[in-house]
Amino acid sequence: MSMILFACVVRVRDGLPLSASTDFYHTQDFVECRRRLKTLALRLAQYPGRGSAEGRDLNIHFSSSGDVACMAICSRQCPAAMAFCFLETLWWEFTASYDTTCIGLASRPYAFLEFDSIIQKVKWHFNYVKSSQMESSLEKIQEELEFQPPAVLMLEDTDVANGMMNGHTQVHLEPAPNFRMEPVTALGILSLILNIMCAALNLIRGIHLAEHSLQVAREEIGNILAFLIPFVACIFQCYLYLFYSPARTVKVMLMLLFICLGNMYLHGLRNLWQILFHIGVAFLSSHQILTRQLQEKQSDCGV
Predict the structure, then answer these.
(1) Distances (CA, A) of 247 to 79, 121, 282
(2) Angle 129-133-139 (CA atoms, 0-180°, nearest 5)?
(3) Membrane topology type, per the record (predicted)?
């Protein structure tokens, strides 16, 4: 008997179903579970990235990252690690096939009907194919679940009454789990060191100038900000390199702009070589941030 019975892909912000498997079981439990899954899909933005809604015979598992969430109805015998490995595989397959613009512009249910066959293929693979590669993936997911357990609900808690959640489970406002980034490179480490050095120089000069200005003149407030704003931008660049953040390109360009404008404003307090050094480090850091991508989906967890 299949342990993964039904799966779908939904848009997180409004619960719009984007694609789903064609399975349908004419049992009261399954029909009721499908109804509760639709209700839960509308509330995904208020839950952590992973969660399970437990019922008597069937469970709902969901995993969301960014704009997309994958959901599945599984039997009680289905291990949580298997369910979440399946959902993670679906997420990678879907996001590799469709970009965020297409997902955001979708206006009708099941707009990506052609992805249904992929869902069926992945579901069949997890239900009936066992391999050492899959076992390795399941062990990795199991370790993640032990480190960060998914939210656990009862199916009754997914009902909505007067726009509020019923039951005793509190609505969580936690962010989704971090994406896995590619390994840090030697050049990336160098950019971090240089960025920290530039941040320290900006902070020291800014504090020193602030102490001096409080005693002498207030017209130097612009110079103080020209030191402190690039300091903050350098620190944020380090964060963007180490951790995934949505809209990275826009944030990187803003930080680069702040650093360049700040150093140009400081012409006179810094010589040309100092300005070029700070701007050069900013460009190096920006390049390293934009080239460090999410890890590719590992084949041992997919089809």
Answers:
(1) 35, 32, 18
(2) 105
(3) Multi-pass membrane protein
Regions of the chain short of the pLDDT cut 50? 160-178, 296-303
pLDDT per residue over 22-58, tens digit each?
777 778 888 888 888 998 888 888 888 888 888 888 8
Instruction: State residue 278's pLDDT score.
Output: 93
| Residue 57 DSSP class | S
- Whether 259 contacts 230, CB under 8 Å: yes
d(CA 279, CA 263): 7
Residue-wise pLDDT tens digits, 243-260: 877 778 889 999 999 999
- C-alpha distances (whole Å) from 125 to each of 65, 118, 122, 134, 300 are 23, 11, 5, 10, 12
Q: How far is CA 204 from CA 39, 228, 231, 268, in A?
A: 54, 9, 10, 17
CB 29 within 8 A of CB 22: no
d(Cα 57, Cα 59) in Å, to the nearest integer? 7
Quote the CA–CA distance of 139 and 124 in Å, as a whole number. 20
* Ranges of each domain in the chain: 4-153, 182-294
Q: Distance of alpha carbon 101 from its chain centroid, rounded?
A: 16
Q: What letter does residue 163 receive in the DSSP assignment?
A: T
Rg of the chain in Å (alpha carbons): 25
Number of H helices, E strands in the chain: 9, 8
Which of these CATH numbers, 3.30.450.50, 3.40.190.290, 3.20.20.70, 3.30.450.20, describes 4-153?
3.30.450.50
User: Could you tell me the strand order of the sheet in which 50-54 lies?
Assistant: 17-20, 4-11, 68-75, 58-65, 50-54, 151-154
Assigned token pair, 286 = 């920006």
Backbone angles phi, psi at 204, to 5 degrees: -60, -50
Sign (positive or negative) of CA dihedral 240, 150, 156, 123:
positive
In the chain, the amino acid numbered 259 is I
